[in-house]
Amino acid sequence: MRFPRRIRPFAMVLLCAGMACTPVLAAPALMPQPVQYLPQEGALPLAGGVQVQWQGVRSPLLERAVARFEQRLAALSARPAVAGTPAGLVLRINCQHADPDMLSIHMREHYQLRTGTNGAALVADGPAGVLRGLATLLQLVEPGEAGPVLDGAEIDDSPRFAWRGMLVDVSRHFMSPAALERQLDMMELTKLNVLHLHLSDGQGFRVESRVYPRLQQVASHGEYYTQQQVRDLVAHAADRGIRVVPEFDAPGHSYAMLLAYPQYAAQPVTAPLDPKRVVRAAFDPTNPDTYVFLARLYHEMAGLFPDAYFHVGGDEVRPDEWTANPRISAFMQQHGYASATAMQAAFTRRVQAIVAHEGKTMMGWDELLDAPASPGIVIEPWRGSRYTAQATAAGHPVVVSAGYYLDLLLPAAEHYRVDPLDPLGNGLPPDQVAAAHAPALAPFALDPAASMTTAQDGLVLGAEAALWTEIVSEEMLDARLWPRAAALAERFWSPAAVRDEAALARRLPVVQAELEILGNRAAADRHRMMARLAPDGLAPLATLLAVTTPVRNYALNHVFGPSHVAAASIPLALDRVADIATPDSFEAAAFTRDVAAYVDGQHDLAPGLRARLENWRDNDARLRQVVATRPALREALPASGQLAELACVGLYALDGTLAAHQVQVAAVLQAAQAQFAASESMLAVRNSPQPAGDLLQAITPAIAGLVQGHM
Ligand code: ACM
Q: Where is the active site (predicted)?
């Protein structure tokens, strides 16, 4: 399909920061891309308010959705939302069914949307469809030359997967209710529909328990959700057509619970928090009281979280946590449990009975497959897609998070490339299959040995983007989740054939800018973090961080390999430059596009490229001045110097003086490329020192392209 060529001044301003560069987009940035989208001639100026004409079902939930829509439309079109202003937009909503399956995996999300000079008509199968259609409608707002307009379109849309989740780990770092509500708003805008909350792990238990109050008293550092806050959060989500699935991880990852109730621990658990024990502590599976504790706790929590699914974790149990305890080891021998895996399978059966007693469907990580498990259990593969194949072969429904771990700090495209059903590439051209199996994702990688039948595909309920927060504070949350979660929202919603990474890259900055207008704090929080590091000279730091990205594949966590830093019992400050840098550099992406066009013969782009290169070259001296009084910034200097060197190489290429600097050019490029290689996989991270400041130069491929004269 061809879109009308049109320039979007909004997107240009956004990307170019005052410098000459090419327009980036010629169609509305719809994300997720609808199943069917026909652009129509005729855009509607958005001058006044909204007049809604209801047909079919009308409910308080839908009225609140429309009120949110009006506010958001006003924000996006930069005008006040004043009730009673003449209607600029007539919006006809026809919700055809009340949908008894609302907020289940069967909820009706299909909608049809038609926009044009007469207004907008939204027909939906159910309330969830209305919500999804309103999200699309907002993405059809364009700046227009004479003010904001609603683009003409004809859309017929429904999701590919029923379960489109986002996991937020609130144990490693607590996230306030306001931060989570903000994420729910972003999820609504991108059609994600499950918030999976990892509420309990080694570092903290995060829900008020009235049955076991020591959980919040001893194991939360005072940071937990009251029961009322949980109810409010669940209601906020429900209003947006989003389910909340709680996870209380056991038998491993349970140090916090066991700190509060050490009588259920397999090995002694003591305060203060012991960093070596925090990842190991596990429940004692041989103590009958363990199951009484879990049954009473899960009963209380199941009452707080109304969703039909209940996640019990089950990942990463350390066998010697059990086998090194003589009493547990004797019990295992006596009862014929030959291994910790067999012991865990018995534990899982007990827990499943507890969850079933609550009328819920149990969900757990792929370790539950290590021993035969009841096929009713929903498996969440995280260690690799082979577990998707293995789980579905055994009849388990599956929600895939392998390939979607946002804390690996990979760029959006690398996650986007991974399809939930794609153990064999699923129709990808061979070169892209190779890319999808790149070592960057190992051991979360797709497994070429796995393959699935259509029946197995049908068991894949969907997928989840996952953010583990060992090194993510609340202030970093929005930038670590977005816009990459929006790219995954598309992967989980849109047809499998939607996989054009260049189109993704062009839309991402526009979508992110819209999300920020509507409440996302990524840019604002990064700005505050930069201002704290460089209160008297933020601009040079911002220039550096706009084109550098953090090292990948857990190199920034410094938990293994040559850059290992001993785990601290005091949480890290998380105020380093690499904590502010983002996995996707929009500025580098725009520069790379321009370089590609330039080496392809578009030579009028030279002045714009030169201006950017000179700015990066000269930025180093400016940053050095700031660092003179801000020693915390010193670790950014090597990256800043390297950016200047890369910029010089780019300028040599533009000037035609590469030959005179051959040795320098080769050394600068090689150094920058080697730094990418040092964190291209977890294996590489184990074996390679990381660059000073933990920063990668995102313009490296573009500079290499300028040097080689092709991309
Ligand atoms: C996990 O990442 N341990 C589920």
A: 316 (proton donor)
Which residue type is seen at 343? M
How many other C-beta atoms lie within 10 A of the C-beta of residue 603?
10
- How many C-beta neighbours within 10 Å does residue 35 have? 16
- How high is the pLDDT of residue 86? 66
CB 705 within 8 A of CB 592: yes
**Burial (CB count within 10 angstroms: exposed 0-12, middle 13-18, buried 19+), residue 304:** middle
Q: What share of the chain is helix, strand, coil (3-state, %, to 5)?
A: 45, 15, 40
- Whether the pLDDT of residue 211 is over 50: the answer is yes
Catalytic residue among 181, 223, 300, 316: 316
- Determine contact, residues 589/506, Cβ cutoff 8 Å: no
Q: Which domains does the chain have, with CATH numbers?
A: 36-157 (3.30.379.10), 535-709 (no CATH)
Q: Exposed, middle or buried by CB within 10 Å (0-12, 13-18, 19+), for 46?
A: buried
12 Cα–ligand 1 center, Å: 40
Which numbered atom of ligand 1 lies nearest the CA of 315?
A: 3
Measured from the Cβ of residue 288, the count of other Cβ atoms closer than 10 Å reads 8
Count of all residues that appear for the chain in the document: 711
CA-nearest residue for atom 2, ligand 1, is 382
CA–CA separation, 172 and 468 (whole Å): 8
Answer whether 382 contacts ligand 1 (Cβ < 6 A): yes
Among 167, 365, 387, the mutation site with the greatest number of ligand 1 atoms within 8 A of its Cβ is: 365
pTM of the model as a whole = 0.93
Nearest-atom number in ligand 1 for the CA of 382 is 4
The Cα-based distances of 97 to 58, 66, 131 in angstroms read: 10, 17, 13
Reduced to 3 states, what is the DSSP secondary structure of residue 181?
Answer: helix
- The tens digit of pLDDT for each residue in 486-504 reads 999 999 999 999 999 999 9
Ligand 1 pocket, residue 279 CB under 6 Å: no
Taking only the tens place, the pLDDT of each residue in 25-42 is: 457 899 999 999 999 998
| Alpha-carbon dihedral 668, 670, 675, 676, rounded to 10 degrees | 120
Dist. CA 322–CA 335, nearest whole Å: 14
Please say if 316 is a catalytic residue. Answer: yes
Give the burial string for 451-478 (b: 16+ CB within 10 Å, else e).
ebeeebeebbbbbbbbbbbbbbbbbbbb
Select from 132, 130, 125, 123 the least CA-distant residue to 31. Answer: 132
Within 8 A by CB and 6+ apart from 186, the residues are 478, 481, 482, 485, 486, 515, 518, 519, 520
Give the separation between CA 645 and CA 274, rounded to whole angstroms.
44
Residue 578 in contact with residue 635, Cβ under 8 Å? no
139: tokens are: 């993405």
Cα separation, 39 vs 44, in Å, equals 13
CB under 8 Å to 354, separation ≥6 — which residues?
291, 294, 295, 298
* Beta carbon of 315 within 6 Å of any ligand 1 atom: yes
Q: How many CB atoms lie within 10 A of CB 662?
A: 10
